[in-house]
Amino acid sequence: MNIKLKPVKIKDIAEGYIDNDDEGAYAYSGRLTIRPPYQRNFVYSLDQEKAVINTVLNGFPLNIMYWVKNKNDNYEILDGQQRTLSVLHFLDHKFAIDYQGHQVYVDSLADDAYEKIMNYEFMVYECVGTDSEKLSWFEIVNVAGEKLSKQELRNSAYVGSWLSDAKRIFSKRNCAARMLSNKYIKGDPNRQELLEKALIGICDFQKIKGDKAIEEYMAKHKSDNDANELWQYFQDVIAWVEKIFETYRKDMLGIDWCYLYNKYHYNTYNSKTIKEDLDKIYLNENDEIENFKGVYEYILCKDTDPFAEKYLNLRGFSKREKMQAYERQGGKCAICKQHFDIDEMEGDHIIPWSKGGLTNSDNCQMLCISCNRQKSNT
């Protein structure tokens, strides 16, 4: 990994500056990608932009910036996007600053003040190396101010045609993936959270395991012309959810649907039967369930997993209910019949919740930890 400090004057960066909105922002005679296409990171307020200009005019240092050097001696900003854009916005007559008691735009500055801005040097670390080397460096450094997420760091290391298309689909406020999944999957496209969730899902679907699974996938597809495989997978997930669960409920937002799709989509389900099962749970307002998000995996596996109730966040037995069962059993485990202190035992449903058993004293039995674990794992 080659990391070199490179002072760059503002006048050189401003050369050829252009901002094409969704098509990206570029400068440095077209060699610097300030904001990649369809990527909108943190936007400074007007006061923050003015503060950058005042820092430059006073000759004070701005924080170190990081540029990734790519093919053909082109660069992409890893850190410093908003500081760079603040200066370029001012030079592009986008806002005025308080200068010598007056609000002035760039063309009203005194010549010496204008030259001071144009000759001010950004202190830039130029980063060159393999994708894995760059990612390792970025993870160590991360950046001052607003920390980059893990996926933002990965994006900086695996720049290419695949990533550009993936950002177009997953990394914009009103991107196609957000519009498709906003009722089901939480994630800020701007922080690359939606893209990361899709990548986690497809890696699991394709059995790519390990801590570096996403990096492995991105490295493999870096030079692909598009991200159609990932996009098709994501569409399949949402289509499956909408097919299986006919009625939308607000509890469906935030569930890991990629995980559930990967695990259960090969099974055959009757959507009408599933609707009836869910209606029974919701319409009865079952106070045994404290978190309804687990209901969906329970519904998907209750006919094949005898211990599907483990996916439900059922109300636990109270201390009083457990003490009553403990005294009733004479301090002995209901399965192995050995004697234990109450702190060495756990409450268990005699009649399972799925068969109508309630969380009350009459339906509570005390099991030793070992027996309860064996029962849960069989």
Structural commentary:
The structure is a single chain. The chain has 378 residues and is α+β, with helices and mostly antiparallel strands. The chain folds into three domains: 2-158, no CATH class; 160-264, no CATH class; 319-377, 3-Layer(aba) Sandwich (His-Me finger endonuclease fold). It has helices at residues 10-13, 46-57, 81-91, 111-118, 131-141, 150-157, 161-170, 176-181, 193-205, 213-221, 228-244, 257-264, 271-283, 295-301, 319-328, 369-377, and strands at 2-9, 18-19, 25-27, 32-35, 65-69, 75-79, 97-99, 102-104, 121-128, 289-291, 313-314, 345-349, 364-368. Helix 2 (46-57) crosses helix 3 (81-91), helix 9 crosses helix 11 and helix 11 (228-244) crosses helix 12. The longest helix is centred in the middle third of the chain and has 17 residues, at 228-244. The protein is elongated and about 90 Å long.
Key phrases:
378 residues; alpha+beta; His-Me finger endonuclease fold; 3 domains; elongated
Name the shape in a single word: elongated
| Main sheet summary | 7 strands, mixed
pLDDT averaged residue by residue:
88
Secondary structure tally, helices: 16
β-strand percent reads 5-15%
Main sheet: which strands, in order across? 1-9-5-6-4-3-2
- Write down how many β-strands occur, each being a DSSP E stretch of 2 or more residues: 13
Distance between the termini: 50 Å
Q: What fraction, in percent, of the residue positions are helical?
A: 40-55%
How many individual domains?
A: 3
Cα-based radius of gyration, to the nearest Å: 29 Å
Q: Low-confidence spans: pLDDT under 50, at least 5 residues?
A: none
Q: What series of H and E elements makes up the topology?
A: EHEEEHEEHEEHEHHHHHHHHHEHEHEEH
Helix-strand category: alpha+beta
